[in-house]
Amino acid sequence: MSKMHAAALIDAARIRAGLTWADLAGALGAAPVWTTAALLGQHPMTAAQAAVVVEMLGLGDDVAESLQQQPNRGSDPTVMNDPTIYRLVEAISVYGPALKALIHEEFGDGIMSAINFTADVARRADPDGDRVVITLDGKFLDYRW
Description:
It contains 6 helices and 2 strands; from the N terminus they run ααααααββ. The protein is of the alpha+beta class and about 140 residues long. A hairpin with a 6-residue loop joins strand 1 (about 110-125) and strand 2 (about 130-140).
């Protein structure tokens, strides 16, 4: 079974069960952003993690097998049309060069790892309307010659 097909089954079963992504992450003892990405096909899970998910959601061994497979990371081009994803890309397009300059100024010549990496999403109350707070936390990797 493809990871895309498994992700659709997982999301439908999660909704039917009345579970949140955070509920599944809690059951795995893993970060919500990582868990959600893994369940949507972007990371492989261990056999034990996959077993927990399929048991909670009443899904079969085929889904567990898919969860354990190495993914093809990245997004389907049609996903890029989603307004939330498009705005995230827009934010990086606008602020990416400034963030790059500030990283280089603070750390030197290098990059932020997307492998040794965590991400988090939080809500912050604001009188003008609640704010979305996204934290990207990656290890600095210096360029070495």
